[in-house]
Amino acid sequence: MKNTSHTINKQHEDHGTSKSLIIGFAYSIVLTLAAYFLVVEKVISGWVLDATIVTLCLAQITVQLLFFLHLKNESRPRWKLLIFLFMLGVVVILIAGSLWIMHNLDYRMMTDMSSMKNLQTQ
Amino acid sequence: MTTPTTLEHDHHAEAERYDKTIFGFWIYLMTDCIVFATFFAAYAVLHNNTFGGPSSRDLFSLPFALSETLILLTSSFTCGLAMLAAHRKEKAKVMALFGVTFLLGLSFLGLELTEFSHLVHEGNSWQRSAFLSSFFSLVGCHGLHITCGLFWMFVMMAHVSIRGLTASTLRRLTCLSLFWHFLDVIWVLIFTIVYLMGVK
Average pLDDT of chain A? Predict the structure, then answer.
């Protein structure tokens, strides 16, 4: 396979195999069910549960990027990966920034119900 | 001597065009991620602002959301299988697998609309609270993408059945499959953030 023309080789690695699809599908089903049962059966709670669900979600997204969106098979100058990472940076700034600013606004305006209660008890 | 070189040249030009199109479509998908990120940010900020109305814990049913997730995951899988068949030029298999993907996508959309109409009938529409506004815009935006994807899939199936699996059809099918997998990734985020973390 290595000695055939560049184009054929590239197209071959671009879309994966049915084996990699089945592996990806199995992983994503297992990860979805794991997260679901952790929440429904209430095995753990609090921030541990939050952290576990988020980790499972990130694992699931990684699996889908690798096996369904074929990000791992990209040939050398890895522009797709670069753009993906840039998007990730923008998204982190956007979401973390929004939460930060709005939380700060909430705090200063005292509209939060819990802080109202605090005021009443004081 | 001239024929093989022209053929090779054509092949090379087509491969380059394929790469460029897929790359351009990838950039579109990444910008669409940012669109979804703004909706997610709005939801994260507003999900406690229920204005005395029901919260996410009172409204969402996890088994329902799980069935939606499993349907969409399966449709993503059949879409991937359809693309493998397309690269092997197996037209009948491509039509069958995209048909299955289409039906799964349609049932997902049906479930989502059932949930929406249920919420609206109980008086919990997007006008009820800031939380529900942000919920409807986030999940509705995903549903709108699914609707566009289904329409696109229908057109592409007609295209394949009329013109067969040509180089240009294959290129467009690849874009469609990327779009469909991308919507699956977004739904996984919605399932985790809106449903799992909202109900727990």
Answer: 82
- The model's pLDDT over B46-104, given as tens digits with 9 standing for 90+, comes to 998 888 889 998 999 999 999 999 999 999 999 999 999 999 999 999 999 999 999 99
- What pTM did the predictor assign? 0.89
Closest CA of chain B from A15, distance in Å: 7
Domain match, A9 and A46 both: yes
Please judge whether B42 and A53 are an interchain contact, meaning their C-beta atoms are less than 8 angstroms apart.
no
* A98 touches B44 (CB < 8 A): yes
- From chain A, pick out residues whose CB is under 8 angstroms from the CB of B72: none
**Could you give the CA distance from residue B43 to residue A93 in angstroms, rounded to a whole number?**
16
pLDDT score of A106? 84
Q: Are residues A24 and A57 in the same domain?
A: yes
Query: What is the dotted CATH code of the domain comprising B2-199?
Result: 1.20.120.80
Query: So what's the pLDDT on residue A4?
Result: 41
Task: Give the residue numbers spanning the domain of A122.
Answer: 77-122
Instruction: Collect all residues of chain B within an 8 Å Cβ-Cβ radius of residue A84.
Output: 30
A chain contacts of residue B184, beta-carbon cutoff 8 Å: 64, 68
**A81, A50: one domain:** no
ipTM of the complex: 0.88
Q: Which is more confidently placed, A6 or B170? A: B170
Residues from chain A contacting residue B80 (CB–CB below 8 Å): 16, 21, 24-25, 68
**Same domain, residue pair A70 and A86:** no
Beta carbons of B30 and A10 less than 8 Å apart:
no
Contact B84 A25 (CB under 8 A): no
